[in-house]
Amino acid sequence: MIGRAKESATMRPQPGPSADLVRSLLALAETDAARIRRLLARARELRPAALGQAPPLDLLQGKTVATAFFEPSTRTRTSFALAAQRMGAAVADLSIGGSSLAKGESVRDTALTLQAMGVHAIVVRGKQSGIAQLVHDTVACTVINAGDGRHEHPTQGLLDLATIAEAFGRDDSFDLAGLRVAIVGDVVSSRVARSAIAGLTKLGASVVLVGPPRLAPKGLTCLRPPDAPDAATLAVEHDLDMVLPEMDAVMMLRIQFERHSSETPGHGNALPPERGQNKIGPIASVRAYREHCGLTAERAANMKPGAVVLHPGPMNRSVEIDSTVADSNAGPKSLILQQVAWGVAVRAAVLAEYMGA
Amino acid sequence: MTTLLITGGRVLDPASGFDQIADVAIADGRVVEIGPDLARQPAVRVIDATGMIVCPGLIDPHVHLREPGQEHKETIQTGSLAAIAGGFTTVCCMPNTTPAIDSPEIVRFIADRARAEARCRVFAVAAATRGRQGIEPTELRLLAKAGAVAFSDDGDVVASAGMMLGVMREIAPLGLCFMQHCQEPTLTRGATMHAGDVSTRLGLIGWPRVAEELIIERDVRLVAESGCRYHVQHLSSGGSVEIVRQARAAGLPVTAEASPHHLLLTHEAVAVGPASSRCENHRHLEDGTAKAHRLEASATSAHRLEAGATGYNTSAKMNPPLREQSDIDAIRAGVADGTITVLATDHAPHTPDEKAQPFEDAPFGIIGLETALPLYAEALVHSGAIDWPRLLALLTIEPARLCNLDRARKQNDGLGELFAGGPADITIIDPDAEWTIAEDTLAGKSVNTPFLGRTVRGRAVATIVGGEVVMERDRTVHALPSE
Lengths: 357, 483
Hints:
The complex is a heterodimer.
Chain A: H1 2-11, H2 33-50, E1 64-69, H3 75-86, E2 90-94, H4 107-116, E3 121-126, H5 131-138, E4 142-148, H6 154-167, E5 180-184, H7 191-202, E6 206-210, E7 234-237, H8 240-243, E8 249-252, H9 286-293, H10 297-300, E9 308-310, H11 323-326, E10 333-334, H12 336-354
Parallel strand pairs in A: 1-2, 1-3, 3-4, 5-6, 5-8, 6-7, 8-9, 9-10
Helix pairs in contact in A: 2-6, 2-12, 3-12, 4-5, 6-7, 6-12
Chain B: E1 4-13, E2 18-27, E3 30-35, E4 46-48, E5 53-56, E6 58-63, H1 76-85, E7 88-93, H2 104-117, E8 121-126, H3 140-146, E9 150-152, H4 161-171, E10 177-180, E11 193-194, H5 197-202, E12 206-207, H6 209-226, E13 229-232, H7 238-249, E14 254-258, H8 260-264, H9 268-271, H10 276-280, H11 288-306, H12 325-336, E15 342-343, H13 352-355, H14 372-381, H15 388-395, H16 397-402, H17 407-410, E16 426-436, E17 455-465, E18 468-472
Parallel strand pairs in B: 1-4, 1-5, 6-7, 7-8, 8-9, 9-10, 10-13, 11-12, 13-14, 14-15
Antiparallel strand pairs in B: 1-2, 2-3, 5-16, 16-17, 17-18
Helix pairs in contact in B: 2-3, 4-6, 6-7, 7-12
């Protein structure tokens, strides 16, 4: 399988010298396996400096990275900022409240303004799918997608890959052939899932998407990238209890309260979960969601020996994951904090790679 | 004396079945005679139409002229320029203006503006409910008296079955048609494109076929109940074609229209990049830096295209959305077997800035008047589905009947038909003219079309409204010295 994956990567028509024109990371679905592996290897190499365990590097000395977050975020933005700083770059934060966006400026004008200020990369997040591509199409500098609507969150996908590869001793080859990974919960609204699906299958893992039909419709199997090796399958199941015992890793998703426009009273203003609340987006209740998608302590006990648990955060404890599972070091091992650590390393690698350092 | 003589063309009048090489003599804004060898008559002006098709002026029963209230996108004047550039002599404008065309005053305002500024005939389709809100009906009878040629809340469906039935009962005795924008709103909240693989990959909420089909199914029952003439606007789903086919077979007064984009493009057009319009949005940045970066951007896009690029092409965002090849095949088959009797562009101008927003924020709609004729020909005639006479029926007498503009209703002022004594609304078509759709070929105010860069065959070379040549392309029009 390893051979196959590499072969399919090298068989892909390569643009040759123009490859260095790939200046932006918008989606793992559009990133080939060879580049994904190169980014992961780079993350492994940069990790000590990225995490402040080694002196900062000067790879991005003299460069400025702007974080343009049109949608609230703390952890991803902080992670990018730390990664950029520890690689020697200056960081400019475009804060939502004080920005021109609040005055009705268009995304394009914001991007052009940042470009005119001389930034070398724009890290963009927004609630609209495709917003990172729009920024990429607007400016000439590097654009890194830090989450666009329901579409992709490629650095999250990369950190998931790094975490899983490390947990299973695959962090030399970054070949995940033979591993089976479940992605559980609100898959249809999840940009984290789309990036993970692309990355995992391109590196050879098989993925099972699990959730009730409205959150994990069968049509999601079209997300399997055409350049994934044949053995890396993508399936949709609705019964978590049936799937769990066979999985090497399970990625729990956060329920996307803010992304279910249909059947909720208003777009974007759905309330966070409370016990006894009757309706969560398309799901009847918290307990109904837990029945379909919750990684409870009882369910975790049915997982394979050596299996691991991931969650992109922020967690809704006691909704999609029980605290005893999230904080566990025994039984299925929780890798949630390892994910956070890999996040900084992966973002350092991504900035270095796409900014040409 | 004949003021205009069109000689040697293939005169094609679908209403009468006339189809032969002949001359057309025009005087005082009306057709005087159609027949061979009229060239012996003295004429002020002669147009040699040898090799051309000469037919009744094309009619588009579904356009958005944006006036009043959204004149930055289009006006009655600029929309009429787009119409005559495409060979259309009559257009019917939809009521989703600001304010909506929901009162007799606004219907008369449209007529006044059209008389003052339009280069073609413009008729108003009036809203069936106030403000197109679906809550209370408009003054339907007064609107009809003021000149509305049909009713529609286009842009929105009349969602309530109770309201729909009530409105249909009111409209039925007026003899006008209700045109439905078929979209069950509870199935399309937040939706921006066809529900399928592409929407799944792009992370966009899907607009499923069933949302369209459900409304048509419902309305067919309400038509049976009310007897109201009912027209399905811009159908996009193969399933809708079948529902209309069965309703017509059952003898119900149901018609349907198809639009150029639904006959030619699939949802994959949303994923194709780079969006040419988006590149063109850089036009105002014509300094070296912008050019260099555009070159780089397009090189990158070309690379990413190989790797399966995403796109988010807002020029392919319309409502109802582009669907799949099976839908295209079914809609073409529906045209071929007579289920779909009308073609309509849904001409929907938006500015480049509006279309340069993130896909989910950008407005729905594309322009169509200037490009429609060759696109219809490509989808329907060149593909072998129908011939030119049938295509022209779908563009002339059929929409005239739909909007009560035909000879049966208007006698000597009847449109969509060539007859001695009738209005000299005539389109001359070069069926073989090859041309490439580009921004400078567009006459209206906006350029939002996914067809930029497409090479097409067939073009209106002259458009005549009421005997006046309002559009002519140099190569085919020869003014001769008058007698």
